[in-house]
Amino acid sequence: MEEEGDNLLKEDNYYQLLNVSKTATPEEINSAYRRFSRMFHPDKHSTDPNKQKWAEQIFNKIKEAYEVLSDSHKRAIYDTLGKRGLEVDGWEVIFRTRTPKEIREEYERLKREREERRLQQSANPRGTITVSVNATDMFTKYYDEYEILEDTVGIPSIEVSGMTIQQSIDAPVTLRNTVTLSGNISTQNGIGTGSVNMSNRHLSSERGWTELECGIGNGPVLGFKMFRTISRLMFVNCGTGLQFTPRGIVPSLVTTMAIQLDAHSVGYLTYRAGNQGGAMTTTYVRDSEKYHLNTAVQIGNPHSFISFNIMRKLPQYDMKLRLALKFGTFGAIAEYGAEKKVSQNSSVSAAVMLGVPSGVMLKLKWSCSTQTIVVPIHLCEEVVPAPVFYATVVPMVSWLIIKKLVLDPISRERQERERQRSMEANFERLQEMQRQARATVELMRETYLRNRSDEEKKKGLVIIKALYGKLPSGATSHDTTAEEIGDGAPESPSAYGDVINVTIPLQCLVRDSRLELLDASKSELAGFYDPCAGDEKHLTVCYMFHNYLHVCTVPEQEALILPRTIHRIKNRS
After folding, report:
1. Checking DSSP bridges between strand 291-300 and strand 305-314, what pairing results, if any?
2. By percentage, how much of the chain surpasses pLDDT 90?
3. N or C: which end of the chain has fewer CB within 10 A?
4. Would you give the DSSP letter of residue 85?
5. Model confidence over 267-306: pLDDT tens digits?
6. What is the DSSP string of 29-61?
7. CA nearest 540: which of 568, 509, 503?
8. pLDDT single digits (tens) 339-381
9. Start and end of every J domain (predicted)?
10. Residue 333 in contact with residue 353, Cβ under 8 Å?
11. Is 326 helix (H, G, I), strand (E, B) or coil?
12. Residue 277 to residue 200: CA distance in whole angstroms
């Protein structure tokens, strides 16, 4: 419960407390500290014991933030590990003599080691289930002699023509040795096969590993693999095996050499030899932020081909679009499809394959963590318009319907349930944050009146009203008007939704007719708190500048710099 709540109610952000960026200079940090010290120093509020108590608490927070950010070593630890890193006993002794860069590098090294140990302690099960469906009867009707004589007309025949189940688990034996047990069962048109393999991978050094493998399927199998890093930009991978069959011993060999061409590109050269023939393959892979490109040329026996594969990444939509072409001695294949991320660990994808002579095939895939289900559906043995159309449109329409009627309601219900659970777990903490924010606003009042008066005299930046929280359904920055957010005193009530009035805190942050807020959660600013934890929040500001009234609305995590003319309301004399 507590961990879930921590996701909504965050620990203090030292940069936000001082309203400085993560790249702020020592001079900017000192200036911010002096400004807030004048505002919250307990001695300034000694006439009111209640205000003095709150001022002392807030001042101590400001002072704590200043002490960390003004010390380069503590600041490096905080930037890397957060507030908890500063609370580790002995940390300041260990790292006092190290530079900020060395601290970050050491932390990254320790993090990698912890991750390796965590992975080695897990079984890491992986599995794939493939169900092949033959639905060619839907578009190409076959009649046998009996059906012709009886003149039978029935429902198209759809049958499962094959199934494959693959599963593997890892068992770490030592920090350098991992045993993997894998197996698969496959059946195709009534003929079944299966195999069981066991391997041991040994990390011989930081530059490579070796692996011994044995198994049984269509006869006993022995294998050996190795990986070696030659240089910073090159590595080799080699594998050889012996399969013992009733017809004799069948050897095989696969070796790959790879070289990094630039920051985003890698080239591969692979040679394969075995009972099925030999081939040499050259592959070029380029992976960037927006695209993944893969091209390959293979020359060998029994097949030679040229392939081209491009994937467009759309992270803003959690989606990937894919197009692939392949031409060779076996024929030609064109493929297009899309992959959609459903949750943190699961995704669905659909692809249409058009081939000669294979025909039209629809391939559906669902992945959840390390488990995958694949359903290839063979629709037609020839490339004709009808199966291509249905293979393209039906998955899209089905996804939209399922998403609208099933997935979206489930997601909203789960998010609301988690939010309510987190709010209940953090109710007392949230109440304390609200009380502290209100007390902070009271302490700011004198500074607010002085700042506003100074700005009004020079016709500078005057915050008329500022609201922070959840926008009404369907509202946008251009929909907002001065009447909707209210006008007048900053204490005046507002029915603008689940929001709080932050006019006083924002005016206190104005310096020389300019307001700058960072691209971080506004709830961590002095005088703010989160009025609707877990919901999307915005900041709406109505302000005067040079006798013109303006209004703007920005998302919580977006930076804000005023003045700027987003929506001019009217001219005031």
Report:
1. antiparallel
2. 40
3. C
4. G
5. 999 999 987 788 999 999 999 989 999 999 999 988 899 9
6. HHHHHHHHHHHH-GGGGTT-HHHHHHHHHHHHH
7. 503
8. 999 887 889 999 999 999 889 999 999 998 889 999 999 999 8
9. 13-82
10. yes
11. strand
12. 28
* Helices and strands in the chain: count of H runs, count of E runs: 13, 24
Q: Is the pLDDT of residue 26 over 70?
A: yes
Helix (H) / strand (E) containing 154: none
DSSP per-residue codes, 237-260: EEEEEEEEETTEEEEEEEEEEEEE
Q: Which residue has the tokens 């009380």?
A: 435
The Cα-based distances of 493 to 91, 250, 447, 476, 499 in angstroms read 49, 84, 22, 21, 11
Provide the residue type at 347 as one letter. S
**How far is it, in rounded angstroms, from Cα 4 to Cα 175?**
32
Rounded to the nearest 10 degrees, what angle do helices 408-425 and 427-457 cross at?
90
Q: Which amino acid is at 470?
A: K
The tokens for 14 are 């030292």
pTM equals 0.61
Helix (H) or strand (E) holding 147: helix 145-150
CA distances from 212 to 215, 223, 420 (A): 11, 6, 52
Q: How far is CA 459 from the centre of its chain?
A: 45
Comparing C-alpha atoms, which of 532, 537, 505 is closest to residue 521?
Answer: 537
Give the Å distances, CA to CA, from 508 to 16, 178, 221, 437, 462: 14, 60, 76, 14, 10
Q: Count CB atoms within 10 A of the CB of residue 554.
A: 18
**Burial bucket for residue 191 (CB in 10 Å: 0-12, 13-18, 19+):** exposed
Give me the residues paired with residue 165 across strands: 129, 185
Radius of gyration of the chain measured on its C-alpha atoms: 33
Give tens-digit pLDDT for 450-460: 999 999 999 99
> How far does the chain reach from its first CA to its final CA, in angstroms?
55
- The CA distance from 241 to 269, in Å, is 20
Q: Which amino acid is at 150?
A: E
The answer, yes or no, to whether residue 110 has pLDDT greater than 80, is: no
State the Cα–Cα distance between residues 360 and 384, nearest whole angstrom: 8
What count of other Cβ atoms lies within 10 Å of the Cβ of residue 199?
Answer: 19
Helix (H, G, I), strand (E, B) or coil at 395: helix
Query: Which contiguous run of DSSP H or E holds residue 268?
Result: strand 265-274
Which DSSP helix (H) or strand (E) runs through 174? none
Rounded alpha-carbon distances, angstroms, from residue 29 to 14, 38, 42, 72? 11, 14, 21, 12
C-beta separation of 46 from 443 below 8 A: no
